[in-house]
Structure formats: structure tokens, C-alpha cells
């Protein structure tokens, strides 16, 4: 949850991080504790630890059958939106294998009852999602006056023992969200250790997830420096650390350094929350987060599905899975995103070891019904030892691939194409375990001349999300109000008070004086009829910040609002 994620005013995060990095690397990766070998029994857990369901071994999160499990999912604010019961099904339909669910122990928000928590677990299981449950009331303790303690959170989990019992294959208990602010973060270690011991003494054997201090971002390195001692305080060895990555993590060096320190030390880690859109404190490097997580096989859970106070972090607009924001498109359909990398937990197939054999390549696609703006592709089906569950159509440009369509059958209609343009397409197949086939042979398609984008009709909603001296964050939602898909669009507008765009996501901006031209990113390139895409940006401004009064798409005027 994006709240007060930086140091108090006057502190230099980058300077502190630079000063600490050498010490912290030694503290985690180079200390005698970090160099310890696994316990004598070779399990990666203390002797006598019971392995039940999801568990940690040798620095990895495993299922009960020993299958490696890598989280690919999102956060969902259940406690504030208990009526949004379809959200888990929608999140699963977009490919996630895990959902982190916001709960309250009643300290700060309305307490989620045992019956409600049981219903959440049932919905997770019905939708074949691993369920990470977290108490949000601890957020920012020591700096946020309304925050509760980790001890209170532990008491809440103990009160839910009857609900949690027997769910070790499906549920991870995240003791408390971001349980320490920026005030004396060293105070995080003792209550964290105490809460772990209290839960284990009460009999909970679930995987426990531990959030970092500094509002989850650990920019002073307290969790990193003390992770080994905290891990060894768990008599079951079933502990998973969680780092939240927002504006503190705005360079590749910072991200890779932090994640690799845990991997090198053999300590289990997940990116329990992260954001991509920038704010006045910085611009998170989400591309490196996703790439590093995939390279190191670490889990990640994006913040968050919908309903944020600052909607720039909404993955779905208005809880609608058909209206993904630019941030949502990046997470679900982008490179190293959920659609590309998620694998369902094998427990939902009876706990059998994971299927690792990919389908065969689909046959060569054939194009038909080619118009100025669309084409239909059909291909011979792929085969698989278990079963093919879907296909992914990609546009091939040199060494680059861009996902353009998905289908559960060996055919797909591509819309939003540009008239008189030559495209190259290919197809991949996936099976139920998420294994991806080799790519099919390619097909070249040239759309008809003269069509352009017929009947273009659009509206643009512009708003200022946040302002600070000399700068601001803005957002534009481009809606296609026509009857045909809108592809290959260019959005134009003019600033009225000399504002300048410094960074944009969801598109690329070029500016000449006050005139701005925006072209789409690959994941916002096509706007379906009745659909929309959201573009965000940060910019510079003077004393006034008047909104643009006119917008065009491909030179034609758009409505406002």
C-alpha cells in the first residue's frame, strides 16, 4: 500500500543507501551466520521440523510434494471492498497463481471474522489460487499513530486457528503488513522474532511471510542485516521474507543488489508489493524488478487489483478486468509479466509433481478475412501429453515479439491493424501447467489499403493526480467510443501553462514547445470498441497548472471527459 514510503523530509535515501550498501552486503552475505551450512540432516530446516504443505527448503518456497513454487500474482484489498467477491476469479482469469488478500484484525479497520476469512480461503481454492493472508493494521507502526503491533496481529492469527488448520497447502500467513515505519526501524527485529515464536508455540505450521520495516522498503537495511537471525528464530524453518519495492528502488543496481543478497545467502525472499508508476519521491524501476524476479526465480505480487486512494496504482479500473490500466497491462501482459511467467500450483491437480513437458509447436498459421483493420489467423493445433489450454499470437518484428491476441482454440481474429501495413505473426501454445511451446512458423499479412481506422470516435479524460512545488503527476484515459477497434493511434494536445512531460508510462511522449504528441506502448496499442487505455506521466510546471482543453487522435478531435 503506497503510504509514507520514504524517509522523513530532509533525509537523502540515495545517499543513505549508498553509504550502507557495503556494510549491509557484509551483514547478510558475508557474516559468519550467512556462511552457515544447512543443518546436518540436509533438509534446509532445523532437525525435527515438520514439513506440511507449502514450506521453505534451501532458500526456496516449495509445495508439499517438493515442487518449486514461484508466486506470480497481485494484491487485493478485500477488507475495504468485501463486496468485490468476483475479484479473485477475475485475477485468476488473467493468469495469476497467487493473490495476497488484505485483512484487518479490528485494530484500525473493521475486523474480518472467521467466517469471512474462511470464505476468502474457499474462493482462493475454488479459483486455484494460493492465498497469502495479511493483517494490514500494523502498517507503519512507530510512525503511524493508528497502527497496531505485531503481537496483536499474532493474536488475530491464533484466533483463526480453526479456520487455518488443514490449509497449509493453500495458505501463507503474512503476519503484518509493513509493520514498522521510518522511526527507529531497528526496533523491528525483536517484535518480529517474538511474533514468529508466539505463532509457532500456538501450533501454526503454515509458511509465515515477514514484511520489512521502513514501510516495507527496508531502505535502512534492517531486515537485510538481521534476516539470518530472524530466520533461525523459527523452529520450523518455514519463513519467507517480503520486500516492498516502490520509489526507493528506482535503479537496477539497487534492485539487483537487494534481491541477490538474499539469494546468495540462501534466504527465501518474495517481492510482496511493488509499483511501477512514479510519484514525487521517485520512479520505481518495475522492468528490472520483473526481470530480476524471473532471472532469480523469486515470487512477486503487484500492488494492487483496484480501489486505491491513488488510482494510478489500480491494475483494473473500477474492478473491471476488461478495463486494465497501463499498469495492469504491464503486469498481466508485459515482458516477464504474469501472463508470460505464471505457473499454477500443482496442489490443484492432486499434488502430482509438476508437468514440465511443453506442447509441440502449433502449425503454420494461415490468414483469411483480411481487411484494412483486421485479419483472422487459423493454425493446426499443437499437441501435449496432458492437454493444450490456450494459444498466444505474437507480432514478430526482427528479434522483438509483441503479444497481440490470446485464444483457447486454434484461431484468432486480430483487430486494430493499420491499413496498408505488412505484419508478421506467429503462435505459441500453453498447457495447464503453463509450459510454453516452441514458436510456430510465421505468416506475413498485408492489410488492405485506404481503410485507416474507420469511424474513429473517442474521448479523453485528463486529471492531475498529485502536485508538488515545480512538478506534478498526471493521468489521461483514452476511451474508444466507436464501433471498431482503434489501433495505431497518436494522441495530441497542447499544454496551456508551459508544462513539460518528463516521464510517461503506457505511451511515449514527444513535445515541441507546448504541443505534445503521444504514441502507444505495445500493451496500449489497440483500444477495443468501448474500451479504454490509461496513460500516466510526471511533469514539470510553474505556479499554474491548467488542464489541456482539446485533444485529438490521429488528427481528429476527441470529446473531453
Automatic annotation (TrEMBL):
<keyword id="KW-0378">Hydrolase</keyword>
<protein>
    <recommendedName>
        <fullName>Endoglucanase</fullName>
        <ecNumber>3.2.1.4</ecNumber>
    </recommendedName>
</protein>
<dbReference type="InterPro" id="IPR012291">
    <property type="entry name" value="CBM2_carb-bd_dom_sf"/>
</dbReference>
<keyword id="KW-0136">Cellulose degradation</keyword>
<dbReference type="Pfam" id="PF00553">
    <property type="entry name" value="CBM_2"/>
</dbReference>
<dbReference type="InterPro" id="IPR008965">
    <property type="entry name" value="CBM2/CBM3_carb-bd_dom_sf"/>
</dbReference>
<dbReference type="InterPro" id="IPR013783">
    <property type="entry name" value="Ig-like_fold"/>
</dbReference>
<dbReference type="InterPro" id="IPR001547">
    <property type="entry name" value="Glyco_hydro_5"/>
</dbReference>
<feature type="domain" description="Fibronectin type-III">
    <location>
        <begin position="361"/>
        <end position="450"/>
    </location>
</feature>
<keyword id="KW-0119">Carbohydrate metabolism</keyword>
<dbReference type="GO" id="GO:0008810">
    <property type="term" value="F:cellulase activity"/>
</dbReference>
<comment type="similarity">
    <text>Belongs to the glycosyl hydrolase 5 (cellulase A) family.</text>
</comment>
<keyword id="KW-0732">Signal</keyword>
<feature type="domain" description="CBM2">
    <location>
        <begin position="451"/>
        <end position="561"/>
    </location>
</feature>
<dbReference type="GO" id="GO:0030247">
    <property type="term" value="F:polysaccharide binding"/>
</dbReference>
<feature type="signal peptide">
    <location>
        <begin position="1"/>
        <end position="37"/>
    </location>
</feature>
<dbReference type="Pfam" id="PF00041">
    <property type="entry name" value="fn3"/>
</dbReference>
<dbReference type="GO" id="GO:0030245">
    <property type="term" value="P:cellulose catabolic process"/>
</dbReference>
<keyword id="KW-0326">Glycosidase</keyword>
<dbReference type="InterPro" id="IPR001919">
    <property type="entry name" value="CBD2"/>
</dbReference>
<dbReference type="Pfam" id="PF00150">
    <property type="entry name" value="Cellulase"/>
</dbReference>
<dbReference type="InterPro" id="IPR036116">
    <property type="entry name" value="FN3_sf"/>
</dbReference>
<dbReference type="InterPro" id="IPR003961">
    <property type="entry name" value="FN3_dom"/>
</dbReference>
<dbReference type="InterPro" id="IPR017853">
    <property type="entry name" value="GH"/>
</dbReference>
<keyword id="KW-0624">Polysaccharide degradation</keyword>
Amino acid at each position: 500500500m503506497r503510504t509514507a514510503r520514504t524517509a522523513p523530509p530532509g533525509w537523502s535515501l540515495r545517499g543513505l543507501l549508498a553509504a550502507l550498501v557495503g556494510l549491509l552486503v557484509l551483514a547478510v552475505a558475508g557474516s559468519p551466520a550467512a556462511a552457515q551450512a544447512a543443518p546436518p540432516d540436509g533438509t534446509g530446516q532445523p532437525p525435527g521440523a515438520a514439513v506440511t504443505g507449502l514450506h521453505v527448503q534451501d532458500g526456496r518456497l516449495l509445495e508439499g510434494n517438493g515442487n518449486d513454487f514461484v508466486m506470480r500474482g497481485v494484491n487485493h484489498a478485500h477488507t475495504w471492498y468485501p463486496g468485490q467477491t468476483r475479484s479473485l476469479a477475475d485475477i485468476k482469469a488473467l493468469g495469476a497463481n497467487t493473490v495476497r488478500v488484505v485483512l484487518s484484525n479490528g485494530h484500525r479497520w473493521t475486523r474480518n471474522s472467521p467466517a469471512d476469512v474462511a470464505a476468502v480461503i474457499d474462493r482462493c481454492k475454488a479459483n486455484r489460487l494460493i492465498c497469502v493472508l495479511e493483517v494490514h493494521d500494523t502498517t507503519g507502526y512507530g510512525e503511524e499513530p493508528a497502527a497496531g503491533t505485531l503481537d496483536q496481529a499474532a493474536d488475530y492469527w491464533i484466533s483463526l486457528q480453526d479456520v487455518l488448520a488443514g490449509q497449509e497447502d493453500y495458505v501463507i500467513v503474512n503476519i503484518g503488513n509493513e509493520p514498522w515505519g521510518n522511526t527507529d526501524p531497528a526496533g523491528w527485529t525483536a517484535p518480529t522474532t517474538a511474533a514468529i515464536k508466539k505463532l509457532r508455540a500456538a501450533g501454526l505450521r503454515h509458511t509465515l511471510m515477514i514484511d520489512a520495516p521502513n514501510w516495507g522498503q527496508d531502505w535502512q537495511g534492517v531486515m537485510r542485516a538481521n534476516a539470518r537471525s530472524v530466520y533461525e528464530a523459527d523452529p520450523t524453518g518455514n519463513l519467507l521474507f517480503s520486500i516492498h519495492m516502490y520509489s526507493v528502488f528506482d535503479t537496477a543496481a539497487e534492485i539487483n543488489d537487494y534481491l541477490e543478497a538474499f539469494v546468495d545467502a540462501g534466504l527465501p525472499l518474495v517481492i510482496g508489493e511493488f509499483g511501477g508508476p512514479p510519484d514525487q519521491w521517485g520512479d520505481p524501476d518495475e522492468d528490472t524488478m520483473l526481470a530480476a524476479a524471473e532471472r532469480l526465480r523469486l515470487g512477486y505480487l503487484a500492488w494492487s487489483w483496484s480501489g486505491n486512494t491513488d488510482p494510478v496504482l489500480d491494475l483494473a479500473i473500477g474492478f473491471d478486468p476488461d478495463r486494465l490500466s497501463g499498469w495492469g497491462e504491464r503486469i498481466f501482459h508485459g515482458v516477464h509479466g504474469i501472463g508470460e511467467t505464471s505457473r499454477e500450483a500443482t496442489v490443484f491437480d492432486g499434488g502430482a509433481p509438476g508437468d514440465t513437458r511443453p506442447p509441440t509447436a502449433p502449425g503454420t498459421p494461415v490468414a483469411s478475412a483480411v481487411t484494412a483493420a483486421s485479419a483472422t489467423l487459423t493454425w493446426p493445433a499443437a499437441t501435449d501429453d496432458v492437454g493444450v489450454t490456450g494459444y498466444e499470437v505474437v507480432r514478430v518484428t526482427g528479434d522483438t515479439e509483441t503479444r497481440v491476441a490470446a485464444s483457447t482454440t486454434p484461431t484468432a481474429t486480430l483487430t486494430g491493424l493499420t491499413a496498408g501495413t505488412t505484419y508478421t505473426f506467429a503462435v505459441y501454445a500453453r498447457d495447464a501447467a503453463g509450459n510454453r511451446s516452441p514458436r510456430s512458423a510465421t505468416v506475413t499479412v498485408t492489410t488492405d489499403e485506404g481503410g485507416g481506422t474507420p469511424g474513429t470516435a473517442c474521448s479523453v479524460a485528463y486529471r492531475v493526480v498529485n502536485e508538488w512545488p515545480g512538478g506534478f503527476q498526471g493521468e489521461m484515459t483514452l476511451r474508444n467510443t466507436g464501433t471498431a477497434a482503434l489501433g495505431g493511434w497518436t494522441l495530441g494536445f497542447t499544454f496551456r501553462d508551459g508544462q513539460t512531460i518528463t516521464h510517461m508510462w503506457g505511451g511515449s511522449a514527444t513535445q515541441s514547445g507546448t504541443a505534445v504528441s503521444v504514441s502507444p506502448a505495445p500493451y496500449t496499442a489497440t483500444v477495443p470498441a468501448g474500451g479504454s487505455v490509461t496513460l500516466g506521466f510526471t511533469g514539470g510546471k510553474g505556479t499554474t497548472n491548467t488542464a489541456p482543453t482539446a485533444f485529438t487522435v490521429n488528427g481528429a478531435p476527441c470529446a473531453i471527459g
